Amino acid sequence: MKISKYNIIKEIDNKILVYNSFSKASIFLEKGSDTSVFENIEAFNKADKETKKVLTENGFVVDDERDEFSEIKYIYEQKYFDTNFFNIVLVPSLLCNFKCPYCCEKDYTCGKENVKKYFEVLKKYAKKNFSKHNVVQISLFGGEPLLYVNECLDFLDWVQKDSEKNNYKYFTSVVTNGSLLTKESFKKLLDHNLYSLQITIDSDKENHDSMRIFKTGKPSFDLLIKKINELVPLSIDYDKFQFVLRINLNNTNIKKVKATLEEIKKENRKYINLLIRAIYNTHAYKEKNTNSVNELKEYFDLGTKLGFKVLKEKYNYQTCEACGDRKFFNLMPDLSIWKCINDLGYDKCCIGKIDDNGEVILKPENVVNWYKSCMSAFLDKECIDCKMLPDCLGGCPLYKCKNKGKKSCRSFDMSSLPFTY
User: Fold this and answer.
1) CA–CA distance, 239 with 232 (Å, rounded to integer)
2) Burial class (CB in 10 A: 0-12, 13-18, 19+), 146
3) Looking at 307-388, which runs of residues are DSSP E strands?
4) For all residues of the chain together, what is the average pLDDT?
5) How far is residue 421's CA from residue 351's CA, in Å, rounded to a whole number?
6) Alpha carbon 247 to its chain's center
7) Per-residue pLDDT reduced to its tens digit, 258-281
8) What is the spatial distance between Cα 276 and Cα 87, in angstroms, rounded to a whole number?
9) CA dist., res. 418 & res. 327, Å (int)
10) What pLDDT does 314 receive?
């Protein structure tokens, strides 16, 4: 036996956390505890039978012959090239009824004039391609996707019939500002195998109502809290569904966020997964933020104390929590295909286009460039030697594409910490 290469030992809140980034197992020990069994095979060999069992079953100690790095590389490449699963993110329009100042799409106004053609061509593409996969994930994004909820639901009705005819499974997810969501539309989405719906609140009422406002200037905090409390009970019988409440940290503090989370009814909290992120600067937004990912634990602790769940990434072993590196793309309003849309000014993220007949026309150089960025961690000595490799995998592919291969490593707090809850 040998010690796993991916044991991470950290002191957190007067406790010692031992976490394995490959197995995702974690153990909290009292401060001052002996951690030698996680670091030294001789100490492990002297441990009692029960301790050995716990450590081997959870991946802290592995067989001598096991090559963990090669396993991670295999899992990653297998997911990247997996043709059984396909995820298409529908962006029928970049229009939105909000005017959030940090929106990376705010300078792009591709509107409703393209929506009819968008879904007509999408059906042609889907008819030719969806049945090639065992599972198709359809994610609704924007802009605000529910501006076109009828068009989206019409397409999902078509997919439902096509999936039954051609024997593939489909499920859906939605990222929405929540303002247009109704009980009726939510129920229809749930019936289309909705596995995730995400709504965002910015920190606290004061902060939110200065940032996430309607184009009319009307605030949205009270409306969204009301909708969350009304809609969550409708979903509790759907076992595979997760309601995601994203909390954006922006010049706020724990007391203010606590007041926000307490607005959610106690009986609803156990059905809500918290995704907590600090707002960061992009090409479209450059403002100072006193919050960072390094303080996420106190907010996760707050959420769990109040009865919420902490969201764990559904797809492990990937560089990005959004794109997932696998058979995935965003279909933009002009029917162009993008791997990432966090910077629409960087067109090398565009890997092709769907023509009017539903055929894909690729840009090979951009496809290869993205692939190289995604795979670079397995060639980078610093990444190869890093204990966080399974959780980070070299970080954001977009950043590496834009910065000639330079990597932006993901922090422990953002990537690994949620798995300890």
Assistant:
1) 13
2) buried
3) 309-310, 328-331, 336-338, 350-354, 360-362
4) 93
5) 37
6) 13
7) 999 999 999 999 999 999 999 887
8) 24
9) 25
10) 64
CA atoms within 13 A on the CB side of 132: 10
One DSSP character per residue, 78-116 reads: HHHT-SSEEEEEE------SB--TT-TTTT----GGGHH
User: Among 371, 377, 312, 375, which Cα is nearest to 339's?
Assistant: 371
* Distance from C-alpha of 131 to C-alpha of 206, rounded to nearest angstrom: 48
Neighbours of 100 (CB within 10 A): 19
Closest CA to 125 of 140, 138, 112: 138
3-state helix, strand, coil in the chain (%, to 5): 40, 20, 40
∠ CA 243-248-250 to the nearest 5 degrees? 165
Distance CA 259, CA 263 (A): 7
The owner of tokens 């795979």 is: 375
Q: DSSP letters along 320-338, please? A: -TTT-SSSEEEE-TTSEEE
Distance, in Å, from the CA atom of 86 to the CA atom of 136, rounded to the nearest integer, reads 5
Length of the chain: 421
Hunting for tokens 């994203």 — which residue is that? 246
pLDDT tens digit string along 182-236?
999 999 999 999 999 999 999 999 999 999 999 999 999 999 999 999 999 999 9
Residue 69 has pLDDT above 90, yes or no: yes
Model confidence at 325, in pLDDT bands (50, 70, 90)? low
What domains are defined for the chain? 2-66 (no CATH), 84-310 (3.20.20.70)
C-alpha 414/C-alpha 224 separation (Å) is 25
In the chain, how many H helices and how many E strands? 16, 16
Which residues, at least 6 apart from 67, have a Cβ–Cβ distance to it below 8 Å? none
Q: Where are the beta strands (DSSP E) in 128-232?
A: 135-140, 169-175, 194-202
